Amino acid sequence: MNALYSLLFVFLLVLIPLFGVDAAHLRSIFGVCIPMTAFIIFLVGFIYKVITWARSAVPFRIPTTGGQFKSFDPVLFPQNKLDCPQTGAQTFFRMVLEVFAFRSLFRNTAVSLHENNGPVVAYKSSKWLWLFAITFHYSFFIVALRHLRLFLEPIPFFVHGLEFVDGILQIGAPTMYLTDAGLVLGVLLLLGRRLINPRINYISYASDFFPLFLILAVALSGIYMRYYAKVDIMAIKELTMGLVTFHYHVPDAITAPFFVHVFLVSVLMAYFPFSKLMHMPGVFLSPTRNMPNDTRAKHHVNPWNDPKIMAHAYADYEKEFGVPMAEAGLPLDNPENGVPHDEADA
Amino acid sequence: MKMHYGFPIIAGLLIFVVAITAPFAVGKAVTKQYKQPEPKKVVGEKECIESVEFMRTEHMQLLNEWRDWALRDGKRIYTNHAGKQFTISLQNTCMKCHTNKAEFCDKCHNDAGVSPYCWDCHVQPEGLK
Fold this sequence. Notes:
The complex is a heterodimer.
Chain A: H1 2-23, H2 27-55, H3 88-101, H4 103-106, E1 109-115, E2 119-125, H5 128-146, H6 157-166, H7 178-196, H8 198-202, H9 206-229, H10 233-245, H11 256-271, H12 279-282, H13 314-327, H14 341-345
Antiparallel strand pairs in A: 1-2
Helix pairs in contact in A: 1-9, 1-11, 2-11, 5-7, 7-9, 9-11
Chain B: H1 6-31, H2 52-72, E1 77-79, E2 85-87, H3 90-97, H4 105-112
Antiparallel strand pairs in B: 1-2
């Protein structure tokens, strides 16, 4: 049901610009106002969320590890520097691999139950999620970077480079981009996983399906525009350059498919800071990943401790509560603490 | 509540914000105001093989089909939407009027960031570079 509602909602989102542009002729609303507003919501919301996270307490050193800690015998048990980082540099490399190669997904395992004179639990490597995720994320990233050709003039060299490598198969004209296929395939695989695997389906909410359907709709509307509907790219560049130079203008040559695409992207941008998609900055702030595992080497004091609350050693505690402790029959380190004060004075 | 890990977080956030707003800065500082390029108008002929709108959006697909029809199927005659017939040939039909690559093709292709591979096989016309 969650998936169905999300899909219906995305259909509704496609209808809005279709009616808005074709029936109501709100071309500058859909061409300029909505995208710019969505971009501002994205930017402000993104910054606000990250600042909120930066201000929240991280009292403990809680890295999760998956490898050998520095041991008494480094030859027999060498330290696993990436899965049990103990210095800042090791943690940095762990984070680089996490962000660029999705290493924790690569280490994903699948659990299965077998029968062999009683139940046996088995774990095995499961790389599918990693494969789907990396296909999707890199395709989406390159697709987003390629769009810079519409927002920059002159176009920087790396956009030409991406354009060339992405269209290297030279299939059709306009040339097919590998990342277009990768993006759609990646979304469909991630979506299929949520729909088909009953355990993952059970824990999937509308907030899991909606971004997937929305990104799928963004990708399909872009593909439709490029390969099927065929829009006037120079008119579109005039509009997009108008956005970044603040000389807003919506040329008449632009047709409805463009507005659908832009509206869906606007919804994605505006939705981004309030959704699970914030894992994009969030991955950098994962306390189980971005901290060195050095609690056995360094003494860490919780920086959020209230300085007004003084340390209270057990010796002082026993001095304060020694009498009732002795009355209750509790053992005392120093039996003198158990003697009532007036008696001791006497 | 204090920001204990403030410096790296704010630095990272700043890099992201600068990167994502860079097109605005570049647009304001370098491009200033953008106008669509105007490919050189043809003198002599009044109409292209199809309408201007069709050619603006579909010429790449048409040229691709022309290549397939001419070189793979041996079909050398194209009938346009109005029923008029043309010889399928980039160099003899298209470039009879659009003689100058730099002042026609490249005008939009540069701005759109596309580099079609027509000239891998075809001889480039005058006005190259």
